[in-house]
């Protein structure tokens, strides 16, 4: 059994993206995984933070007509994952 990409139980909002969704930027230390979320693999990965969901979220943004508002970065060094956070939130909240 494969879990759907918009399964709310997995803690992400792919199914809730619409034209009014806020801009989002996702940063992952891991590469985009070639690993389906199945009953067999669920215990080996953290499905909430699996990079595959960042990709799915950006696809949902594109389908809603504002794909430029979703950015995802893979294989970012652990000590750099928060770089740019202050400017991102300042831009987001008009600061």
Summarize the structure.
Helix content is 22%, strand content 8%.
Category by helix and strand content? alpha+beta
Radius of gyration: 14 Å
Strand content: 5-15%
- Tell me, what's the shape? flat
How large is the count of helical segments?
A: 2
Termini gap: 46 Å
Largest sheet data: 2 strands, parallel
Overview of the structural elements:
The protein is α+β, with helices and mostly antiparallel strands and 95 residues long. It has two helices and two strands. The protein has a two-stranded parallel ribbon. Helix 1 links the parallel strand 1 and strand 2. The mean pLDDT is 77.
Topology:
Layout: E1 24-27, H1 51-63, E2 70-73, H2 85-92
Parallel strand pairs: 1-2
Characteristic terms for this protein:
two-stranded parallel ribbon, 22% helix, flat
């Amino acid at each position: 059994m494969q879990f759907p990409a918009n399964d709310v139980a997995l803690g992400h909002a792919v199914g809730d993206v619409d034209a009014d969704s806020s801009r989002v930027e996702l940063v992952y230390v891991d590469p985009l995984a070639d690993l389906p979320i199945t009953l067999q693999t669920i215990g080996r990965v953290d499905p909430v933070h699996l990079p595959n969901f960042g990709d799915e979220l950006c696809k949902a943004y594109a389908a809603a007509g504002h794909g430029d508002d979703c950015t995802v970065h893979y294989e970012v060094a652990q000590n750099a994952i928060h770089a740019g956070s202050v400017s991102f939130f300042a831009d987001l909240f008009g600061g």
